[in-house]
Amino acid sequence: MVNPIATATSPRGRDILIDALKPHVDLNVIHTRGRGHAIELADKARCDGVELVVCLSGDGMVNEVVNGLLSASSPAETAAARAQLPMLAVVPGGSTNVFARALGIPRDLVKATGSLLAALRAQRHRTINLGKLGDRWFTFCAGAGLDAEVVRQVEAKRQGGHISTATLYARVAASAYSRRLRDDPPVLTLTESSGATHHLAMAVVQNTAPWTYLGRRAIHGCTSASLDRGLDVLGIRELGPAAMLQVTAQLLVRGAATGTNIFTRHDNDSFTITADRPVAVHIDGDFLAEHDRLLLESVPNALTVLAPEQWPKNLRGRIFR
């Protein structure tokens, strides 16, 4: 499944991948036509009994494919039932490729193709946990507040012809932050399963680390987040200039932030976030909608992925052959 307009996807790269896969699998190549199309295609692949779906795309289409593959699944469904779903393989084709990099897949297309072929030959795969926000699944993160507002504005810029780059994100983030300071920031209330509540100005929910990348620099947020544990939360309590300058500096230099303005939780099964008014929400770097109430859940053993030989060190999951 190919997203022909993904930032780093080219006809030449597509052909390299296709030519490499042809001798090893019964291959059907499909190009997506727009937002939401990959959900339909992945759902059809599931219904048709396809064994493996390979994505050449960025994080947005990978998220759609996951939601299509799991469209008939629920958190209450058994892991054995989900194990009957098609496996997923990802070849990086976007600008950031957070999920692919979290799996340990090389950024270079030729090397990523070689890693995929090696996993196919060895029948090497792993099961990973996923996050769920309402009825939508996510692979690496979801966000509410300023983070999601930046995502929304970057998408608008891209629709206007801008290329997704670290510079674009930085410029949009500065602009969105300035506007947020002029307005009355929303208040988010995060409620843990224990009933404990916490008031935040923005929240990032991670299913793995890092949270994102700025160019080649990993922004971890919650450094212990992992695809084989529950959800981690990074919250910022206040968005004042001094506090945000400190948080930004810590994230850029160390990849993580600490201090009284930072709220974190590790390995959560579920929690809710409510807002005093609808706020921007994103999943896996794609703007979703504005919401004032969110239910977030961790779903163990939700998806099977073809695994590179070198599994990232922060992941403990077993390898299967």
Describe the protein's architecture and organization.
This protein is an alpha+beta fold and 321 residues long. The protein is built from 9 helices and 14 strands. The protein has helices at residues 11-21, 37-47, 59-69, 79-82, 98-102, 109-122, 146-159, 166-182, 241-254; strands spanning 52-57, 87-92, 125-133, 136-138, 141-144, 188-192, 197-200, 202-206, 212-214, 217-219, 231-236, 262-268, 270-283, 286-306. Strand 3 (125-133) and strand 4 form a beta hairpin. Helix 2 packs parallel to helix 3 and helix 7 (146-159) packs across helix 8 (166-182). It is globular. The two termini are 25 Å apart.
Defining traits:
9 helices; 30% strand; Tumour Suppressor Smad4; alpha+beta; 10-stranded antiparallel sheet; 14 strands; single chain; two-stranded parallel sheet; 31% helix; 2 domains; Rossmann fold; 321 residues
Total domains, how many? 2
Q: Flag low-confidence runs.
A: none
Beta-strand content estimate: 25-35%
Number of helices: 9
Question: What is the fold's blueprint, element by element?
Answer:
Blueprint: H1 11-21, H2 37-47, E1 52-57, H3 59-69, H4 79-82, E2 87-92, H5 98-102, H6 109-122, E3 125-133, E4 136-138, E5 141-144, H7 146-159, H8 166-182, E6 188-192, E7 197-200, E8 202-206, E9 212-214, E10 217-219, E11 231-236, H9 241-254, E12 262-268, E13 270-283, E14 286-306
Helix pairs in contact: 1-6, 2-3, 7-8
